């Protein structure tokens, strides 16, 4: 990536980073800078948060707010090439670095970790147990990578090349002539087919082990459920910056107040964020991101006729008992009223039983035809807005002038669809689609077109789900994506991001149950 970035942008980035580092002596202890300076250089300071902000500013990058991955920004080189970037800073002589954490999943590994401790104490080889853990860790790691890539690729994924890299700044240690080394190495999915266990990190910590996929070497530490990676620091250097310390850095700080002035006016008018799950960690069933799993949308008046038509089509392929079974199941699923949550669970079990029979029958076309009758389209989704009635009442113009107003005394949106339509921009990829507020209480954000494309991208790309696989709280935990943020811009666009929200410390713009904690 580094050699593809514009030289003027790299110069700006270097200037901002080295200027900050030139003040390092102001933050050092006296003992570090006394007497002979040539022998007592302090280490250049690279502040990680400042580094991320400067990287975004210099390279016009987008911040990627995804927890427990190393993706901090995305950079668009041109219309066909984009990069996901993990931004890091550590000393040039530092060892392995944390690249992921698996707190929730590690609870499922307690039993095998206990086995490793026990069998290590009696001298039994733990290779197979390490292999199991390495595979589990790798699969989770890879899902997060693919989800993040899908977000930056957007809808035109076939025409966009997305690569992942680590971009690192590595300052020299104390006592060395101050420099900052720019490093870059590939950020790749772990090659599960080529895993090789390198063994425990030490005899005293058998649950900490190393493995490699032939491209990178990793270390898992059980106590904190962290995955570390070897960066081979000195082998990945792509640029070297000299740092000159300011003679009297305190003079700079004394004069900073003279530079204060009017702030540049922001293009952002308002933001709002929420957690996708409910307060119990559950994702809404049969609606929202799981809308495809709801009951059939076939018109009631057409259902009896459609059942009869299907039975007639396959009457020569099914035995009489099989025809009766299929007919009974279809009538039960499509004609019976399923109202309560428990009843809907029973409907889905019946539906799964029928589809299983159709698949096992081997009759060409039967499974597909039944699926069309009893299911909604496989990629049907909408983005659910929590506590939507109250949100619209408090923010009636968020999605457009009066877009969130209701007919008096009802939960029905007052304006026609065309007046509830807005440009929805997916900030990671830059893609823009037409969307509108819909359904009772204005609870749904739907695309006016490309409904299947939107659903396919969100379900299969962002959430890494198989067809007909429902989204769960557990899946969101694995991906470390549990929230959504909308950003209202001055130009009327609404930006959207999939993010991670710390439910114990929610952001100020949070709505829904998490804001009430």
What attributes does this structure have?
single chain, 517 residues, alpha+beta, 3 domains, 7-stranded mixed beta sheet, 14 helices, 18 strands, 32% helix, globular
Question: How many individual helices?
Answer: 14
Radius of gyration: 28 Å
| Domain tally | 3
Main β-sheet description: 7 strands, mixed
Q: Strand arrangement, largest sheet?
A: 12-17-18-14-15-16-13
**Class inferred from helices and paired strands:** alpha+beta
Low-confidence stretches: none
Terminal Cα span: 43 Å
Helix content: 25-40%
Q: Let me know the average pLDDT.
A: 90
Work out the strand percent. Answer: 15-25%
Give a count of the beta strands, DSSP E runs of length 2 or more: 18
Shape: globular
Topology:
Blueprint: H1 7-21, H2 30-33, H3 48-59, E1 62-63, E2 73-78, E3 81-89, E4 97-101, H4 103-106, H5 110-121, H6 127-153, E5 161-171, E6 179-186, E7 196-202, E8 205-212, E9 217-221, E10 226-229, E11 237-242, H7 249-255, E12 268-275, H8 300-313, H9 320-335, H10 341-361, H11 366-374, E13 383-384, H12 388-394, E14 421-426, E15 432-438, E16 444-447, H13 451-462, H14 473-479, E17 483-489, E18 494-499
Parallel strand pairs: 3-5, 14-18
Antiparallel strand pairs: 1-2, 2-3, 4-10, 5-6, 6-11, 7-8, 8-9, 9-10, 12-17, 13-16, 14-15, 15-16, 17-18
């Amino acid at each position: 990536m580094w050699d593809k970035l514009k030289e003027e942008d790299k110069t700006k980035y270097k200037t901002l980073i080295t200027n900050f580092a030139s003040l390092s002596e102001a933050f050092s202890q006296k003992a570090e800078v006394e007497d002979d300076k040539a022998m007592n250089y302090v280490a250049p300071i690279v502040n990680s948060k400042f580094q991320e902000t400067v990287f975004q500013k210099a390279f016009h990058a987008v911040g990627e707010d995804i927890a427990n991955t190393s993706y901090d920004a995305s950079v668009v080189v041109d219309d066909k090439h984009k990069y996901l970037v993990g931004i890091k800073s550590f000393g040039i002589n530092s060892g392995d670095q944390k690249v992921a954490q698996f707190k929730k999943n590690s609870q499922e590994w307690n039993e095998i970790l206990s086995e490793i401790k026990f069998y290590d104490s009696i001298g039994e080889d733990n290779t197979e147990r390490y292999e199991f853990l390495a595979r589990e860790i790798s699969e989770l790691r890879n899902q997060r990578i693919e989800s993040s890539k899908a977000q930056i690729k957007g809808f035109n994924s076939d025409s966009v090349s997305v690569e992942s890299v680590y971009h690192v700044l590595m300052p020299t240690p104390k006592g060395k002539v101050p420099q900052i080394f720019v490093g870059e190495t590939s950020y790749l999915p772990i090659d599960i087919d080529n895993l090789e266990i390198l063994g425990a990190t030490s005899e005293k910590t058998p649950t900490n082990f190393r493995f490699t996929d032939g491209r990178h070497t990793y270390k898992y530490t059980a106590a904190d459920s962290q995955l570390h990676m070897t960066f081979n620091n000195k082998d990945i250097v792509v640029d070297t910056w000299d740092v000159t310390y300011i003679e009297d850095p305190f003079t700079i700080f004394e004069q900073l107040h003279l530079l204060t002035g009017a702030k540049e006016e922001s293009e952002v008018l308002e933001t709002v964020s929420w957690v996708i799950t409910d307060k119990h960690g559950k994702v809404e069933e049969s609606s929202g991101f799981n809308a495809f799993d709801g009951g059939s949308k076939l018109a009631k008046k057409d259902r009896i006729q459609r059942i009869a038509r299907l039975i007639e089509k396959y009457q020569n392929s099914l035995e009489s008992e099989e025809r009766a079974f299929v007919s009974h199941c279809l009538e039960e699923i499509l004609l019976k009223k399923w109202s309560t949550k428990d009843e809907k669970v029973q409907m889905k079990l019946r539906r799964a039983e029928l589809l299983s029979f159709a698949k096992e029958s081997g009759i060409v076309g039967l499974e597909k035809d039944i699926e069309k009758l009893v299911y909604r389209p496989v990629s049907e989704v909408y983005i659910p807005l929590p506590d939507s009635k109250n949100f619209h009442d408090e923010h009636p113009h968020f999605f457009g002038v009066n877009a969130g107003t209701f007919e008096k005394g009802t939960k029905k949106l007052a304006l026609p669809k065309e007046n509830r339509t807005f440009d929805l921009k997916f900030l990671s990829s830059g893609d823009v689609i037409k969307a509108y507020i819909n359904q009772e209480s204005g609870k749904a954000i739907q695309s006016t077109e490309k409904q299947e494309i939107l659903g396919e991208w969100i379900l299969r790309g962002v959430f890494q789900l198989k067809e007909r696989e429902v989204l769960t709280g557990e899946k969101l935990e694995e991906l470390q994506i549990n929230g959504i943020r909308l950003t209202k811009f001055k130009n009327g666009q609404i930006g959207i991001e999939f993010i991670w929200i710390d439910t114990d410390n929610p952001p100020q713009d949070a709505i829904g149950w998490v804001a009430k904690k």
